[in-house]
Amino acid sequence: MIKVDNISKVYGEDAASFQALHEVSFELTKGANLAILGKSGSGKSTLMHALAGLDRPTSGSVSINGKDLWSRKQKEIDVYRNQMVGFVFQDFYLQNEETVLENVMVPLEIRGVGDRKQKAYAALERLEIKDKADNLTRHLSGGEKQRVCLARAIIGQPEILFADEPTGNLDSKTSEKVEALLFKLNKELGTTLVVVTHNEDLARRFANKIVLKDGQIISHEGKELTI
Amino acid sequence: MRTRDLVRRGMRNLRRNKSRTVLTVLALSIGAFTLVLTLGLSNALKSSVNSQLSLATNNELTVTLAAENKAQTGVAEYNPKATAVTSTQIRGEGATIQLLTKEQVDAFAKISGVQRVWPNYNISAKYLQLEGNAKKYVVDNIDVQSYSDQSKNMLAGTYPSNWSATEIVLSQSYTDTLGVPASDLVGKTVIVGYLDAKAKSVEQKFTIAGVLKKPTGFRGDQPATAGLITISIDAAAKIYDTQFNGTRDFNQYAYTTVLLQSPNDESSVRDAITALNKNYSVSSLSDIISRIKTVLNSVTYALAGFSGIALLAAAFGIINTQLMSVFERTKEIGLLKALGMPNSKIRNLFSVEAILIGLLGASIGIILAFAVEIFVNTTFRQKLIDIGFGSHAILISLPNVLIVAAGLGLLSFIAGVFPARKAQKLDPIQALREE
Ligand SMILES: Nc1ncnc2c1ncn2[C@@H]1O[C@H](COP(=O)(O)OP(=O)(O)O)[C@@H](O)[C@H]1O
Ligand SMILES: [Mg+2]
User: Which residues surround ligand 2, an ion (CB under 5 A)?
Assistant: First the structure.
């Protein structure tokens, strides 16, 4: 369960400061799927970063399974990032000079797991890209890269999977495939799925939705979501 | 992240930036190379000094008596009653000594731990003649028996361990001059001619016990060792009596030698001697060796200091390289942090890389130094032995290698601290948003 309580985010200081989030609150049931919608600059990424333990909100709190996130020590937040959540970035953030396999194994490498190849192959298999395991990521197509990102995000078996505009850089056909995979993971593994998008077609498939405008929730729907 | 994964990542990154890595490593290896070579050279020098001086016994002390008014400047007033004062250059200090009397010398013999005492007899001989041979040859110098092991230095015969007053040992020059093989000389009788106190010629017979090899090393080329004979202390004392009894200088000696029962007695005997008179100055071979070593060490430190400066310059190379690396890998660092890598590990990642550069530089420098060591030592081996230096011009020791490797590792680690901190401070989101 994700509980967001009155979080605000102010970037910068004094005259140059900008408030990207205004007292946002909501609750999402464990295992649910949620789409965060809104125009560019509405604060979607900022909200997601606050949930994923990537960027500290200026005020308010986020709690995961009843445990406050941002009051934890940095080391515990690191563990949260590494073990509780998986993250898919819009721009992939793959290490292009390395193989698919090496990229996928990074979360386990950070965790200090010795035997990680088997799990990496399993993740690649689930995303139907195992045959590319030994290719350098820079030789892959956009859709393939995003699937490698997904494999990297799920290799540590996270409880929550975050994706920031996962199909933003993909054509509609490959978008389709990646979307299907996201929902498959949500269903099969019971992973809570939180996706930022401004793609209407993709948004339609989600059971729960939030629409942001200027850092505030202007509308929402879904049974597993309470505001 | 496990250490081996940190090292693996570090190595991968160094490989990726080959030319930059090579240049930084090269700068370090030059410093390491000169440092190791300097240490190796100094080792060889010290070992050469050791082996040459250890030929002589370590059991002997030399005692002189310093003049009372040492601090006096200018010229002293003439005093007809004063004992003769000789100006002697001792260790280049221009010190003035007083002569020792027989009573003073005899007092040393009573000190516990002293085996034997004999003064510098300052005797001389005119000629040496092989019995049955018409020709006489000049005697350049008379040595008094040594208590150290000379068996290595013998050309023929033996160096007596228990000298009798009629035994004599000749230097190799005599066999060469006489044209008689050394082994044939052993057991033969020689006549040594010298002047007595009234300048009248006296002859004395000796039996040849052995022949000494031509010395190598420091004493090798001294002309005074050409016509050198060695006799027992007792024989020297007797000749001294003949040559000086009745002269003004009789029973006054520039210095005396004190033979210890064991080297362990050195400090107690020294104390006992200076307790007799604080003006006694006691020196031993270990003094001389330690003085030479002090000089060698100073030179070594100075040379090592220059290598240190080269290494310091190289350390700035590491800082530069690592800062560039942090800058180039902003995205990678951001990603690793976003995926939960703790700050401390991010820092370690860059520290490990810096240490790898350091160890790589050290290894190359050390290998080069070993190569030079092998080359120099094999090429000049015979020459070094001929001049009596020893068989090695460079002697790199394991501690040298370990110290340089550890020192360079540490230096690189320190140089890497600043870039590593910079990496640690990166904000993951900022790093990822950056284009
Ligand atoms: N580091 C930052 N400093 C200042 N302003 C920022 C920073 N990051 C984001 N913003 C601003 O905050 C607002 C919300 O950004 P973001 O959450 O990325 O929007 P979205 O993901 O919805 O496009 C934008 O106007 C953006 O310019
Ligand atoms: Mg965004």
Answer: A 45
